[in-house]
Amino acid sequence: MKNVFIAISLLVLIGIVITGFWWPPIYWSLPVILALIILGLYDIFQSKRAIRRNFPVFGRLRYVMEGLRPKIQQYFIESDTDGRPFNRIHRNVIYQRAKQEMDTTPFGTQLNVYDNNYEWLNHSINALHFNAANEAPRVIVGGPYCTQPYSASAFNISAMSYGALSKNAIMALNMGAKLGNFAHNTGEGGLSDYHLMGGGDIIWQIGTGYFGCRHPDGNFNPEAFQEKVKLPQVKMVEIKLSQGAKPGHGGILPAAKVTEEIARIRLVELGKDVESPPYHRAFATPIELLTFVDQLRQLSNGKPIGFKLCIGHRSEFVAICKAMVLTKIYPDFVTVDGGEGGTGAAPLEFSNHVGMPLRDALAFVYDTLTGFDLKRHIKIIASGKIVTGFDLVKNFALGADICNSARGMMMALGCIQALECNTNKCPTGVATQNPHLVRGLVAEDKKTRVANFHKQTIKSAAELMAAAGIKHPDDIHRAYIHRRISADKILTYLDSYPYIPKGCLLQKPYAKQFELLMTISDPNSFTPNFNNLNWEELEWARKPMTN
């Protein structure tokens, strides 16, 4: 192909010269032709791209088509029920509710109701009038040692940092939260000026980098924390142990991205790489975690303090619960992030194969807290692909008191699922720091869409509850949600995740599914302890020794 390209180039040049004797205007094509020939010669002699080297100029079409592929797939090939992470049906209902357009669907469902994993809600013959269910349920977050409990909406904005999202997106989200009377989680990037501009309620998330409340060496700074947490807009504080997108994975903010503004917000050194380790430096055991919770509660003058995690080793959460019973220190809330969550960039393997999915994790956390008789002190927040009223209802059924949404709120802002969050080229100005793209997102306009989406989604959940004869999320039972698992078998959530009795993990005999976890978990360590196992009964579980 290289020889063919050279031959064609020579023939085209000769043809232009000869034709020019009779028709001189053809010489105007020479700059374009010469540019293509130079580009082709560059492709031939470069050594990094084999396709361009073998197919000069034409090989570049591969990259053009590769860039267009997601757009062609989304707009011309996918059906309404296809598409990942969110299909067109879900994206459309978010846009419609955000814009307060008609969100009803004609001619019945497009879903195959006989597919495995199809889910539905039981309705009641004695259904309630749709106005009877609470369309704006509030949840009081605050345990026995919280002196400033917070009345939270049942649906809020999940954690998204300034830096991952643009300043205009952050402002629009917070102004929308103010307009709709719900809360906005800052993400681990710190409490920025843009989070505070809208006047909406704030959940300040503190991650392993302690951004905004750290010493120069990266350790937690109590004085810096106390200075910010006293702001009246900060209603709750969330310690991030792990997140659904990349649990157990730290990160580095490159020096090139540490601008003066980022350095000021995050309390990091200008022009130097900033590490977010995969673990916390302020604690190393379950008891130390709770001591840290208590420290933050004291420094905040009694505001609700909780932690967020994507469930990994289940024994670790059991160990934390054992530490709660031992120390009598209780977080005010636990946020359960599903392994399917995530709004920004994460390694493929972590996004696809690390972390327990939300449905399983939420049921496990609720049951564990119930088994230790701790649920009465602690509210559960669920996050992970929650965008519709049915998503809210089924997570309430599994044990959530509150639900958070990140990507749903992004789409309410105008996100089109272009899947370019990690490239700084987000075409809607949501997930980019490019000022030319950011200016396209007008916060004053988008704030209303965020508030609309919140209101209509809550209303949809309330109407579903009314159809089931339920007035409040607390009354939803796992038996209300059905799921098809094969062509001839249907299970309720209660069948898949049976409740365990309150307090049954405080003394033996333990619930059978918790026997092993109770044996290997230790409130003094996150590492499971296998020394107390009866290996005569569990010989099948012993790992063979290797040289």
TrEMBL record:
Cited Pfam families: Glu_synthase (PF01645)
A GO MF term: glutamate synthase activity
Top-rank taxon, per record: Bacteria
The keyword Membrane is annotated on this UniProt entry: yes
All residue ranges annotated as the Glutamate synthase domain in the record: 109-470
Leader peptide range in chain numbering: none
InterPro entries per record: Aldolase_TIM, GltB, Glu_synthdom, YerD
Descriptive protein name: Glutamate synthase domain-containing protein 2
The species this protein was found in: Olivibacter domesticus
